[in-house]
Amino acid sequence: MKDFEYYAPTRVFFGHGKEENIGQIIASYGYHKIMIHYGGGSAKRMGLLDRLETSLSAAGIAYVECGGVQPNPKLSLAREAIRICVQEKAELILAVGGGSVIDSAKCVAAGAAAPEIDPWIYLNREKDVEKALPIGVVLTLSASGSEMSSSCVITNEDGWLKRSFNSDLVRPLFAICNPELTYSVSKFQTGCGTVDIMMHTLERYFSTDGEAPLTDRLAEGLLKEVIAAGRVADQNPTDYDARATLMWASSLSHNGLTGLGRDYFMSAHQIEHELSGMFDQVAHGAGLSVLFPAWCRYIYKYAVDRFCQYAVRVWNLEMDFAHPENTALAGIQATEAYFRSLGMPTHLKELGIDPTEAQIEEMAEKATFFGTRTFPDYIPLGKEEIVDIFHLAE
Amino acid sequence: MKDFEYYAPTRVFFGHGKEENIGQIIASYGYHKIMIHYGGGSAKRMGLLDRLETSLSAAGIAYVECGGVQPNPKLSLAREAIRICVQEKAELILAVGGGSVIDSAKCVAAGAAAPEIDPWIYLNREKDVEKALPIGVVLTLSASGSEMSSSCVITNEDGWLKRSFNSDLVRPLFAICNPELTYSVSKFQTGCGTVDIMMHTLERYFSTDGEAPLTDRLAEGLLKEVIAAGRVADQNPTDYDARATLMWASSLSHNGLTGLGRDYFMSAHQIEHELSGMFDQVAHGAGLSVLFPAWCRYIYKYAVDRFCQYAVRVWNLEMDFAHPENTALAGIQATEAYFRSLGMPTHLKELGIDPTEAQIEEMAEKATFFGTRTFPDYIPLGKEEIVDIFHLAE
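YS: structure for the whole thing
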């Protein structure tokens, strides 16, 4: 087992109607003025913002609003939100939404705590975050795990560069997780979320080194239950227990737990960031649903044992001891078939895009940070290999 | 799934030689004066204290020492340590040891932060802890999980009452977990630790209500790997990976994770506290190894399905659909056989004690807080039922 550091300080309030206590919760931390950050307006339309604001007012918490966060959240809006926070002296950012809103809030939290530094500096990895305002979350989408994670992914429209930073300082202070708030999530977005949750664990699971058998079991157990709950939520969007499993799994899948004791790189995520960075209409989960199977088919022959363990333990497939490659491939096929059963795409064209060869080359080039890095995967992946993976996804 | 709150803020530094950074770690939190709290002297004899003190001095951290914590830690020593902390103005308690030392440190942390309140007030549940000094841990025994938990168990020699309190305020700030520090733990203590780790998950697993399938899978996965690692560590005490699995499992098993979404009561723990409270020579893990199988045999017929799931998923036993009780019983037998394979006792006599009927009655009486509570188990357990469980353990 590799050495590791584990730190997941977010206090999770999980269950029915927990968002009704938002005012009380924020007051218990001693804050008086906050910024509510949210997305395209569904939180407003569905009355959630009203309910939160009623609770905040009752607890004597003042607030300003900044909505309009888009999927693949944009740097320009984060900069605008930072301006508002500084001007209004907000003490905490309350993210009401899913991963995009939370990631935007993280960028705002870092930017507002040190307004003299443009947040692109962090995203471009020129400097580590040194302080950040506290962040609270009211989660409305089970997918990204950003509610407990240290990572923040933002797209800079200037060049359409999608970049990320990691900092323990932006791990949310608390997260309110009420599965009922995800009942209205569409079939497609539920599928995207299920894929994204699985991917955060799968990309840690398929790491190149180290034995971490306890971590393996936690990962495999989580995957089995996400697969089952994803099926139920797809058929019955108001099944509380299925929504609850997805919601809690989204947090556990990206708070570090399912990768401890291994080094991991998350190749498919790295490639997908370029895809949805260039094609803004691509939902992150849908992009992963296309790229992960392609990555698997490219890489599995370099890690047959690992792919067999996955096939046998997660998908309950028979081990073919004479031809282990068959078992490995069957596990990949099972994954792909599952994604398709949720209505998820597994080919680039199904994303409604048809990238040219030049665009594929450009995405691969960007993924290698313009030739300055190769991916430390089972075999090193450079520009050429990433182009091959894109072709396998066609 | 039941509503829950999850909060596990302890920063875990896990792996080889991590204790060498103790000075730097404490300095990073801004503390300058600490109290080192430890046990019977093995930390001193093995040179661990020297190494820690070298690191502390290099980082400019002043320290006072208070050793002598015994298994089933005593209130009198905690009171003495509180006096020293207050007098020396210690800002942090560094627990160097296992669960007894950490629990004692928690009592000291609460007591020293509010010296006007005797800590028995918290243990006797007359008042909640309202403040506590921060606690750091250098873990030398994989067992109690106290390094990430909110619970503190202390024995008051005045009446030999073993009582506990829970408070998020005493969850350690950080824990340094180097599996190598457990290489020298004896076969017997390793067995006790393995049982204790399993029990923290098992007693959450066998809870009376609620379906929490994701939590089940995490619990089952953890149990499978603890069982495997316990066997290896028993045979080869310096197997790093086995020691690492036990150490990380000890933290996960008692930080809340393996019980989320269920209500649980931990009947065997409650009964065991009375046993080792009355018979000070009884190690907690050994007491559980005797009492848990007895509890299982008493209760399984009221929860056959649950015991079958345990037998099938954790022990890979065949389900006997015609006679599910047989499967349930086979799982209990497998557990007991495993405990015995580690050299653990499964009968009261093997603990080196032979309680009289009057003593059994007294322990049962104390467990019900002198008739003021029954255990909310699969069937309510009062004094009479607890006496029966003791008899099954004979």
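YS: worth flagging: Chain A has 15 helices and ten strands.
IM: good catch. Also The longest strand of chain A covers residues 4-14.
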